[in-house]
Specification:
Blueprint (H helix, E strand, L loop, with lengths): L19 H7 L13 E9 L2 E6 L2 E5 L15 E4 L6 E4 L5 E5 L7 E6 L3 E7 L6 H13 L3 E7 L7 H9 L7 E4 L5 H5 L10 E6 L5 H16 L16 E4 L5 E4 L12 H7 L1 H7 L16 H7 L5 H17 L3 H26 L27
Parallel strand pairs: 8-9, 8-11, 9-10, 11-13
Antiparallel strand pairs: 1-2, 1-4, 2-3, 4-5, 6-7, 12-13
Helix pairs in contact: 2-6
Bound molecules: guanosine-5'-triphosphate (GTP) and zinc ion (ZN).
Zinc ion (ZN) binds next to helix 8.
Subunit structure: Monomer. Associates with 30S ribosomal subunit, binds 16S rRNA.
GO molecular function: GTP binding; GTPase activity; metal ion binding; rRNA binding
Pfam family, one: RsgA_GTPase
Length: 385
């Protein structure tokens, strides 16, 4: 059975990722797990609508939401203070990092995915999945979230060109804390990831389907899950989860599984882009216009640097694409509406001009609801109400 309620032995809070960063927020004795006001800290292990569970010194607890906090305010990995009797959530502690994406829908709202992550394993394979532009997008996310990015290339055993892949990957950005090239199905391959998964550390994986994320998560957590009694397995005994969840790693830390998290639309990641492209960011300070898009603006320091051969056109192109995507996804609904209105207005003006040229009157628009004709004054009856 999946997501079963688990009896978990007593834990040391530090093993769950508790640190002075959180302890300082409540000025309490971290070791005792008791805060001054009698609230206890737990770490959000699963969050699904109104059903959330927290892992604390006494094990796994079902959390109770108060009226002013909902599941969308909470992410797996969050540290929360709860009432020890009622298990009511009293406070979500500040996060040292958080990963979010644009929520589904027209509004430019972000959806919180996971919190208090230390390392993000950006995973791809030594095959056609390898795509520097996609890797860069994930890197922007990690940098923006204040999470250490590690690039993991899997399936090194299935190619003769592992070295070439590794070299190319190492050339993508100096911002990676490490670039690994492994066979995810082999013990020594997995072992190279363990130094990021030690006590107090929390890691997660992103990458396309089939690159080996589940394989790695399984290997990194297998022994620990068994001893902790947290095992969600399918018929073949493999670890499976359907929603984001927190798991113990063999090396002492924690792994957050994010199933279905293959494509993450960029949203509100301007600072991540600025960090990844810090050379362009520095140059942009000397552009004539503050919001220079470095396309054809006069006095553009970035274009000047490109002409001087200091940065490549390909790099500037990648910046432009990421920047444009972030801008578009970060637009508010009002901005999106205004843009749509402007496009409709331009379209109508073009149509009207065409009709005028042909000496015809614009037909009535009974067929299109939201676009009333602005046929203009003196047009008489042809105008819709
Ligand atoms: N030979 C080899 N096979 C691998 C390697 N990594 C993953 N695989 C295999 O590739 C298949 C897909 O791996 P998964 O771990 O399920 O991939 P995933 O990234 O979790 O995929 P999703 O769950 O769809 O997101 C499995 O059959 C793995 O055994 C590797 O490094 N070498
Ligand atoms: Zn510029």
């Amino acid at each position: 059975m999946r997501n079963q309620e688990v009896p978990v032995s007593v834990h040391n809070l530090a093993d769950l990722g508790w640190s002075p960063f959180f302890a300082d927020q409540i000025e309490a004795e971290a070791d005792s797990g008791q805060t001054e006001s009698g609230l206890i800290p737990v770490r959000a292990a699963t969050v699904q609508r109104s059903l959330a569970r927290g892992l604390g010194a006494d094990g796994l607890t079902r959390l109770v939401f108060p009226n002013d906090i909902s599941a969308s305010d909470l992410a797996v990995g969050d540290w929360i203070l709860i009432d020890p009797e009622t298990h009511m959530i009293r406070r979500v502690l500040d996060r040292h990092s958080k990963l979010s994406r644009r929520a589904a829908g027209v509004e430019a709202k972000s959806q919180l995915l996971v919190a208090n992550l230390d390392t993000l394993f950006i995973t791809t394979s030594c095959n056609e999945d390898f795509n520097p532009a996609r890797i860069e997008r994930y890197l922007v996310l990690a940098l923006d979230a204040d999470v250490t990015p590690v690039l993991v290339l899997t399936k090194s055993d299935l190619t003769d060109e592992a070295d070439r892949y590794l070299k190319e990957a190492q050339g993508i950005s100096p911002k990676f804390a490490d670039v690994l090239c492994i066979n995810a199905t082999a013990t020594d391959g997995v072992a190279t990831l363990e130094r990021w998964c030690g006590a107090g550390q929390t890691v997660a994986f992103v990458g396309s389907s089939g690159v080996g994320k589940s394989t790695l998560i399984n290997s990194l957590t297998e022994a620990a899950q068994a001893t902790a009694g947290i095992r969600e397995t399918d018929a073949k005994g493999r670890h499976t989860t359907t929603s984001r969840s927190l798991h113990f790693a063999n090396a002492g830390g924690m792994v957050i599984d994010m199933p279905g998290m293959r494509e993450l639309g960029l949203h509100d990641v301007a600072s991540g882009i600025a960090e990844l492209f810090d050379d362009i960011t520095d140059l942009a300070a000397a552009c004539k216009f503050r919001n220079c898009a470095h396309v054809s603006e006069p006095g553009c320091a970035v274009l000047a640097a490109m002409d001087a051969g200091e940065i490549s056109e390909a790099r500037l192109d990648r910046w432009r694409k990421l920047h444009a995507e972030d801008q578009l996804n970060s637009q508010t609904m009002g901005q999106t509406r205004r843009r749509a209105k402007e496009i409709t207005r331009q379209h109508k003006a073009t149509l009207e001009a065409q009709y005028r040229m042909k000496g015809k009157r614009q037909p009535t628009e009974g067929n299109s609801k939201g676009s009333k004709s602005k046929g203009g004054k003196g047009r008489g009856k042809g105008r819709n109400r």
